[in-house]
DNA sequence: GACGAATTATTGGGATGCAAATATTATTAG
DNA sequence: CTAATAATATTTGCATCCCAATAATTCGTC
């Protein structure tokens, strides 16, 4: 019961392309704004909700706290973020944007996610359904249903 | 002309899941075979065609030579790969698998790509078309048509 | 043949990413 | 109240990844 699945390698290549264009986009943003994709991603989250704790930020970025600490070190070093010991819980750290940090967010280019959202908006209902259901199927194939989403390099 | 696009964040989350499960898969392979995804990926390429030069291997892996050098250092350190100065061009290096290296490749688990191929085979024609066309649309949205596919962490 | 340009692999420095171990503080059990 | 436990952020060590600079070799041009 073999089927004609000539498009299979193409699907995989397309997955690669999507992945690459997103990381590529992250690098472009890095050159124009001076900060990396993950750094900008962290700033954007803090711009929406702050103060935030390290663990909360890590959760929203789908990253481990240990990873976020390094990103925060560099953001703090650039004077874009402040770390303050929380008064309620002295184990925790309150993260806040500096004025400079808010500036960077305001001037930063859109992240790839916005590109995706806009592109998806332009699709017809039928096309949108194909993308949506197609991704669902891919996720199911990989048994990724229960997986926590990953960063996508600041998409 | 607003459309109901509630599934948009879900699509993006699904993209994240797909990438994560692939990197996750790479880590599983690391635990069972003792080597990492990119390392196994390099071995598999060398198993198919060798000798190979560093630049050629890098090209086939869609990685920079500088990156591949590090991977080769570790593979050589484990005694899975040999580096020999080429006689025709003394700038170049001939890469070969050792017997131990061939052994590892033979016993290594399938990479994520195989998982995808098998999963795609199980779909009905209608489902397959959705995945295929859905990915096409995503690629077009991102303007990724002209992009050379990237590695996907040894997928 | 000689000198500049291109090619090849490597090194060095920076940024993600993870897991495991650590120090500090909070909470819970007894 | 005290001791064990859990939560929080960090540090350390490792493996990818990139770019830029370097050293060695080859090629091309004069």
From TrEMBL, chains A, B:
<dbReference type="InterPro" id="IPR036388">
    <property type="entry name" value="WH-like_DNA-bd_sf"/>
</dbReference>
<dbReference type="InterPro" id="IPR036390">
    <property type="entry name" value="WH_DNA-bd_sf"/>
</dbReference>
<dbReference type="InterPro" id="IPR023187">
    <property type="entry name" value="Tscrpt_reg_MarR-type_CS"/>
</dbReference>
<keyword id="KW-0805">Transcription regulation</keyword>
<keyword id="KW-0238">DNA-binding</keyword>
<protein>
    <submittedName>
        <fullName>MarR family transcriptional regulator</fullName>
    </submittedName>
</protein>
<keyword id="KW-0804">Transcription</keyword>
<dbReference type="Pfam" id="PF01047">
    <property type="entry name" value="MarR"/>
</dbReference>
<feature type="domain" description="HTH marR-type">
    <location>
        <begin position="8"/>
        <end position="143"/>
    </location>
</feature>
<dbReference type="InterPro" id="IPR000835">
    <property type="entry name" value="HTH_MarR-typ"/>
</dbReference>
């Amino acid at each position: 019961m073999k089927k004609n699945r000539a498009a299979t390698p193409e699907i995989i290549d397309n997955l690669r392309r999507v992945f690459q264009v997103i990381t590529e986009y992250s690098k472009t943003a890095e050159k124009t704004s001076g900060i990396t994709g993950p750094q900008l991603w962290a700033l954007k989250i803090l711009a929406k909700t702050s103060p935030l704790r390290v663990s909360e930020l890590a959760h929203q970025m789908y990253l481990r706290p240990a990873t976020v600490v390094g990103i925060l070190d560099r953001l703090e070093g650039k004077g874009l973020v402040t770390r303050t010991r929380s008064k309620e819980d002295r184990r925790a750290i309150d993260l806040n944007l500096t004025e400079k940090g808010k500036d960077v967010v305001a001037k930063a280019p859109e992240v790839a996610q916005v590109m995706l959202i806009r592109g998806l908006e332009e699709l017809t209902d039928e096309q949108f359904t194909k993308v949506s259901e197609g991704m669902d199927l891919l996720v199911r194939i990989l048994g990724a249903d229960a997986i926590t989403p990953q960063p996508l390099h600041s998409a």
